Amino acid sequence: MSISGPTESPPHHMPSRRERLRTFMRLKSQRRYLIAGVAALGVSTAAFAGAFANESASPDAVKLGAGKASIEAEPVAAYRPLPARSAGPAPTPSTSESPMADGEASFYGNELAGNRTASGEIFDPQKLTAAHRTLPLGSKVRVTNPRNGKTVVVRINDRGPFHGNRVIDLSTAAARSIGLIRSGTGRVNLALLVN
Question: Can you tell me whether residue 65 is helix, strand or coil?
Fold first, then answer.
């Protein structure tokens, strides 16, 4: 029976100065990547928090069944005065305007052409149509760009916009007619046309 002694460990190898320098440089670059990643995470977190705060500050859409007709929750009666009925022949309809709150407008791009809208019709960017969160489909709205005074009358045929504090999404033709194509979005004044 042989008794073996403690196993010997291989001789300890001390890394050379060059190896230690490489390791140090690798750790230093990894540290830079870590700091950059943490900074990017902080910036994106702040951006998401700002977007969330902005989104939660925007008014909520109110269902039409609640007797309201705008995101500002004004009564439907404020937009649709009841016409007086008479026994005589029907009078020629006259159009009056009921001002609504102004706000930010955006527009649909041509990439959505051919999609079905909330009204069931196919979206055509060359027609004067728009999307609104709560106005009844088929409503007509005068949209005015206060920067240049240009106006356009659009028919509501879709729902939206559902992001940010935008109040209306115009078709490409409508946005072009009031000068919003270049900027993409812009402040507008809205007025509901009432027959």
Answer: helix
β-pair partners for 96 = 194
Domains in the chain (CATH in brackets) are 94-194 (2.40.40.10)
Model pLDDT for residues 46-58, shown as the tens digit of each residue = 887 777 665 554 4
**Average pLDDT estimate for 2-22:** 69
Please give the single-letter amino acid code of residue 4. S
Token pair listed for 185: 């979005």
- Token code pair at residue 73: 């929750």
Classify 68 as helix, strand or coil: strand
Q: How much is the pTM?
A: 0.52
For residue 58, which amino acid is it? S
| DSSP string over 1-62 | -----PPPPPPPPPPPHHHHHHHHHHHHHHHHHHHHHHHHHHHHHHHHHHHHHHHHHSPPP-
Q: If DSSP states are collapsed to H, E and C, what string results for 133-172?
A: CCCCCCCEEEEECCCCCCEEEEEEEECCCCCCCEEEEECH
